[in-house]
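To: structure subgroup
Subject: Chain for Friday's discussion

All,

I'm putting the inputs and outputs inline so they're searchable in the archive.
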Amino acid sequence: SEIADADRVVIRKGGGGCCNDPDKDDVLYVITNKTELAEFGKMFRFSGSSMPCACCGYPGVDWWKGDKRIVLSAIHHGITLRVKGSSGDLRLSSSSRLALSKWFEEHCGIDIKNDFDYTRHEEDEIESLGAGLD
């Protein structure tokens, strides 16, 4: 119900705002067409909740109304959606996982099943580069 009034969705190259400033993330895709907004929103169906993992998630998915972000969220492991401020992750239904996987691949070139924590991958690369300097 929170997304019903959104006038756009912004897909970010980042997570759920736990480690980085989401306003500084690169934008991967923006949906402004009302029909596309409705279709995208329908892909988010849930089958319960689950305990949150420790990653930031990837990609960030935010719903906006004018200049106000009304929902800050990120997909986690292609299985759940974490909405900032909630106590647990929302488990995506199997049909949602399939639809979203296809949508993100086609529109953003993202494999949400395997590219689940872009921010963590960058940190791992930085750590491995510095390991040989000791």
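Points worth raising on Friday:
Strands lie at 8-13, 26-31, 46-50, 60-65, 68-76, 80-83, 89-92.
Helices lie at 34-42, 94-108, 118-131.

D.
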